[in-house]
Amino acid sequence: MAGRGYGGRGGAGFARPENALKRAEELENVGQKGNALQVLHDIITSKKHRTWSKTYETIMFKHIDLVVDMKKRNYGKEALMQYRNMCQAVNIASLEEVIKYYLKKASDKAEEAQSKAADRTDRELVTPWFRFLWEAYRSVLEILRTNPKLEPVYAMTANKAFHFCLQFKRTAEFRRLCDILRQHLTNSTNRYREAPTAESLQLHMDTRFEQLKSLILLQKKSPKQQSMATYYARLTQIFAVSENHLYNAYAWLKLFNFSRSFNKNMTPADFQAMSSSVLLAMLSILPYDVKQGQALDEMAVDQEKERILRMANILGYQVDANKDYRTVLSRAALLSSVGAVNVLALVPPEIRQIHELLTSEFAPLELCRRMAPLLAKLGETTHSMSASSPVKEVALGQYVNQLKQVFSSLKISTLESLVPFMPLSEVEAVVVDAVKCEYLQMRIDHRQGTLHFGSQQLESEQVCSHLQLLSQRLSKAVAMERAGAVSAAQAAKKAEIVALALENTEALHSLAHARKLMIEKRKEDAENALLEAERESQRLREQQEQDAARLAERRAKEDALRREKDRIEAELQEQEKQELMAMMEARMKSGKVGSKLAAVMKGAEGKELDRDTILREAQAERLKEQQELERKMTKVARQLDHLERARREEEAPVLARLAAEREAEERGLYEESVRQEAVRHRAGWEQDMADRGRILKTLDDKAVFEAQVIARRREEFEEYRRQQLAKQAQRRAQRRAEITSQRIERFLEQCRKEVAVRVADIEAEEAARLKEEKKKQEEERLRKLQEIAEQQRKREAEIEAKTREQNEALRAAPAAGN
After folding, report:
1. Is the pLDDT of residue 720 over 90?
2. Among the three residues 218, 249, 277, which one is the final residue of a domain in this structure?
3. Which among 419, 422, 272, 288 is positioned nearest to 351, based on CA atoms?
4. 277 and 213 in one domain?
5. Backbone angles phi, psi at 386, to 5 degrees
6. N or C: which end of the chain has fewer CB within 10 A?
7. What does each C-alpha distance from 535 to 52, 544, 550 come to in angstroms?
8. In this structure, is the dihedral angle defined by the CA atoms of residues 142, 143, 148 and 151, taken in order, positive or negative?
9. How crowded is the C-beta side of 552, counted as CA atoms within 13 Å?
10. Torsion sign (Cα): 344, 347, 348, 354
11. What is the DSSP letter of 383?
12. Can you give 280-304 as a three-state secondary structure string?
């Protein structure tokens, strides 16, 4: 019965697929799932069954059950590919149902195994089910990627694969899935020349969003605390080297907050040192921006905004991109947060006094004098030494700003005496930078040795600027007061207008989109129908030509075979005839032919010989000769039997006498050999006994000699062993010294390279800075020269105008006198 089911021919041997399904169920009931799967697999992959019917869908469901139970993923992939070819032109929905059923069964098995996994051994048993489910998703995506009609099923499968990776934390499979989808997209773009439809783009976009969501959820974990602390510590070092005090202060603040929250091993001294670094970093920020005095175009402003937002992200601050980018990371925001983080309570008293002097004290004549001892004490500590120079610049800027509010002019010598912690050249450089950045309005008169505070604007311009500033601040105040006070009627009217516009826009867009889709569908249907008709006609022509060619070829082959067969038969008959005639002639010449056969041959001369008659007569002649020969052999055999019996009777007594004589001779030879062997053995034994007595006398000497040799060999071995150990220790020490020397050499070489690179970078930066400063000074000098020339021209024009008026007045005076 098993032979009828599939034995040797597989399921393709069934005439009807229902019989194969029934046979598979019978095999499954008796426990032969492998044979049942083979039956269904053969009926699906058979070339005879190419027309889809509902029975094949049932067979596929049963096939999938067996594939999932036995984890035969290759069988499942091959069957799905054959089923796709079978039903994609008839019932594509059936393929969709089969694929959904396949994925559901595999997913249920994986989830069931996951729920039963209690210990490590069970989890190792779950891994094959995860691998099977992953291979199922891969196979389905590979099968669906080339059919545009199955794009929704493809998107559904991709989303399920993302959910599988997310649910079971399969990061490696997620990476491979992304590569597969990207490769499929590239191949489909190269394969189809026409533009994709809106539905395809929407499905692709949804799949990409699901991929992004899964990626975010897979990677949603906070970094280690130690890593974050190291990260912010490195940021403080980087910003300190780059002399970006604003970002350095923000990095110190982040490090302080993070250490205070997570590092429970910090001592009060550590907290004091870190809080001092935070406050000094804040106080080191200049109260003006070095780029404020530069004219920036719109593109430069956007780039600056993007840079600041990116730096805020690096520092771990979530900011609103719609706010003014200059207030995202600012000195004012940092100083306002000092009280919130309670830094002042942890810092030493001298740093707290520096903070009070720079933020709240107004002492134009005593600020620098009171700052000098605090800064000197600040430079003594190791962790505050690097911050003393920026704090001096900030203190000088604050001091000059306070002097500007009290004095209109001041001698340079007086300013030098009021700033004891900084030489005059550095003071001048800091003041010039502040003026360039529009933080201070003053000018230096080196001829008179004085400083003049205030801008060079006219009084009317000052009044105008004050009025503009007042107007801007009043506008801001009114806007802040009336924020959110928009009338409900205006809001409702605006919402109604917007909704109407959106509704009309959506309707027009839908109509245009529907009309476009309808036109494209009609064109596509017409093109497909025309293409299908051409394909069908071409297929019929090719089929007819192939049938005609096969028929002509078959007929030609049959004619050739028939002619060849007739030719071979004729040749065989002629050859047999010639051989028979030759044989008969030879027998007739030798006289071995009987009288009857000779009469037949003579009677057949000149006629066509009858082959059967000649063979029959030759057979009879041969049989007669054989019988005569047997009769003669029987007579001869009888005569030989009598002769043999007589010979044996005569030789029997002679053989007995010869045997007795041979036995007596051999017995005598044996006894003589035994006697000679005994004599030879006795002589050998006596010689061995004599040698034994002689050797026994030397046993004592042999033992002494053996002991001496062993002792000498042991001493030689110990000496050789000590020498080898010493050589090994010497080589090991030499190798260790060489390795240490090489490491030191490599480290020194690396340090030299780093120092050379750093020196080159510093020299390049310094050269660029000097070049830029020189360029700016030259531009400033040219601008001042132009202003002076312009003022000179205006003054000359005024003088000329006054001279012209006086001349006209003088001319008019004589005329009036006349």
Report:
1. yes
2. 218
3. 272
4. no
5. -70, -20
6. C
7. 21, 14, 22
8. negative
9. 6
10. negative
11. T
12. HHHHCCCCCCCCCCCCCCHHHHHHH
816 falls within a domain:
no
Note whether 231 and 368 are same-domain residues.
yes
Least confident of 315-329, 428-442, 777-791: 315-329
Q: Examine the pLDDT at 385 and tell me if it is beyond 60.
A: no
Same domain, 305 and 448: yes
pLDDT (average), residues 322-345? 72
Least confidently predicted of 3-12, 139-148, 552-561: 3-12
| 807 assigned to some structural domain | no
Same structural domain, 464 and 571: no
Pair 462, 441: CB distance under 8 Å: no
CA-nearest of 121, 107, 30 to 64 is: 107
Domain with 72 in it: 50-218
How does pLDDT run across 422-456, given as a tens digit for each residue?
888 888 888 888 888 877 888 888 888 888 877 54
Q: CA-to-CA distance for 178 and 162, rounded, in angstroms?
A: 9
Contact 349, 366 (CB under 8 A): no
Q: Which pLDDT score is estimated for 387?
A: 64
Structure tokens at 564: 């060849």
The first and second tokens of residue 677, run together, are 């062997």
- Whether residue 433 is found in the same domain as residue 288: yes
Both tokens of 790, joined, read 């312009």
Q: Exposed (0-12), middle (13-18) or buried (19+): which is 80, by Cβ within 10 Å?
A: buried
The owner of tokens 């007594």 is: 653
Integer-rounded Cα radius of gyration of the chain = 58
What average pLDDT does the segment 679-688 reach? 90
Q: Is residue 442 located within the same domain as residue 576? A: no
Considering the domain boundaries, does residue 5 fall inside one? no
Stretch 85-101: mean pLDDT, rounded?
A: 85
Burial label for 102, CB within 10 Å (0-12, 13-18, 19+), is: buried
What are the tokens at 532? 């299908």
Q: Is residue 606 part of a domain?
A: no
When divided into structural domains, the chain yields a total of: 3
Could you give the CA distance from residue 811 to residue 805 in angstroms, rounded to a whole number?
10
Name residues whose C-beta falls within 8 Å of residue 452's C-beta, 6 or more positions apart in sequence: 408, 409, 442, 443, 444, 445
CA distance 25 to 19: 10
Q: Is the pLDDT of residue 751 over 80?
A: yes
With the CA atoms of 480, 481, 482 and 483 taken in that order, what torsion angle do they form, in degrees rounded to the nearest 10? 40
Contact (CB, 8 A) for 199 and 151: yes
Q: Is the pLDDT of residue 6 over 60?
A: no
Q: Is 689 helix (H, G, I), strand (E, B) or coil?
A: helix
Under 8 Å CB-to-CB from 155, ≥6 apart: which residues? 203, 204, 206, 207
Closest CA to 239 of 252, 225, 227: 252
Q: What is the DSSP string of 563-622?
A: HHHHHHHHHHHHHHHHHHHHHHHHHHHHT-S-HHHHHHHHHTTTS---HHHHHHHHHHHH
Check residue 737 and give its pLDDT. Answer: 93
Q: Are residues 271 and 393 part of one domain?
A: yes
Q: Are residues 172 and 309 in the same domain?
A: no
Question: Taking 80 as the threshold, does the pLDDT of residue 538 lie above it?
Answer: no
CATH of the domain at 376: 1.25.40.860
Q: What is the pTM of this model?
A: 0.36
By the 10 Å C-beta count (0-12 exposed, 13-18 middle, 19+ buried), 352 is classed as middle
Domain end position, chosen among 543, 567, 592? 592
Q: What is the SS3 string spanning 608-662?
A: CCCHHHHHHHHHHHHHHHHHHHHHHHHHHHHHHHHHHHHHHHHHHHHHHHHHHHH
